[in-house]
Amino acid sequence: MPFKLTYIKLTTFYVLIIMIVSIAFSFSIHRISSSEIDRGLSRQINIFRGMPVNPSYSITFDQLEQSRLTQAEESKERLTINLIYFNLLILVLSTFASYLLAKWTLKPIRESMEAQNRFTADASHELRTPLTAIRSEIEVGLRDTELNLSDARLLLNSNLEEIAKLESLSRALLKLANGEEKKIKFAQVSLEEVLIEAYEKVAKLAEAKEIEFDNKLEDIKIIGDKTSLIELFIILLDNAIKYSSPKSKIECQISNVDGKAQVKIIDHGIGIKASELPHIFDRFYRADLSRSKEKADGYGLGLSIAKRIVEMHKATISVTSTPGQGSEFIVKF
């Protein structure tokens, strides 16, 4: 409803501007045309007055002048009516065109506000979950008259786990809100070193699932921020490990394709449905239906952060996936 009212206001504003221009233009045309009619009439009268008088003429110069004045007034009236019809047509067409223009102008703003509202609602929901858990555990503990030191320690440890989740979510939200972009410093970076460091961060997760890595890395250098690039590939590798079956394989490739550095992360896990691929980079989106067998932790923010890092480096990220066969993420610099 608020945007419908905004559409109407903006449409009215556009129509008002168009009609002011149209009426001013019509007024100018009317004045110029009327002046030309009067000037032409005066020339004709002067020509007739300069002609010798013929007694056989039944019409006098005064009658002829009056007749032409009447014709001039009729011409001006027809011109006025035509200009009125013209402005009414302009009013109808401009109203329709202005409404379409108003919707087109406000579309990015509306989409941005809707995205912001969804983001706020999703963030509130995700924040509420650990907070509710902490509050419930504390309330249960306070009502327990037989709470001993051991139980209290368990309660505090559980609360600390929920607080850690809140901290993780808060950091992710800050990154998505551009809170850390000012710290980025671009320099020459080795993609091979970046990928190796990213792997070291997730090696324990891979070992826990006995996942084997097949690496085909070239020492290609690009201009970028090493810290954020390491984070990018930590997210992609972590994502691949989460949704891979135990004792499976993940392939990491760095290559030069048509003068562009290309990094591929290929897993042979459960894959993603085609209907969900367009949404995997959306904030808080988790492909729960296609990945129901793998209940992975997280808030659905990892790939959103990955996409932001890619965009900051003027790169592109794409994904192809087949359910039951795995996914392939490609980053091109």
Automatic annotation (TrEMBL):
Its EC number is 2.7.13.3. It holds the Pfam family HATPase_c. One of its GO terms (cellular component) is plasma membrane. The keyword Transmembrane applies. It catalyses: ATP + protein L-histidine = ADP + protein N-phospho-L-histidine. PROSITE patterns: HIS_KIN. The keyword Zinc does not apply. Residues 122-333 form the Histidine kinase domain. InterPro entries: HATPase_C_sf (IPR036890), HATPase_dom (IPR003594), His_kinase_dom (IPR005467), HisK_dim/P_dom (IPR003661), HisK_dim/P_sf (IPR036097), Sig_transdc_His_kin-like_C (IPR004358), TCS_sensor_his_kinase (IPR050428). The chain crosses the membrane at residues 12-32, 83-102. The lineage of its organism: Bacteria, Candidatus Berkelbacteria. It is an enzyme of class 2 (transferase). Keywords: Kinase, Membrane, Phosphoprotein, Transferase, Transmembrane, Transmembrane helix. It comes from Berkelbacteria bacterium GW2011_GWA2_38_9. This is histidine kinase. GO terms for molecular function: phosphorelay sensor kinase activity. It is found in: Membrane.
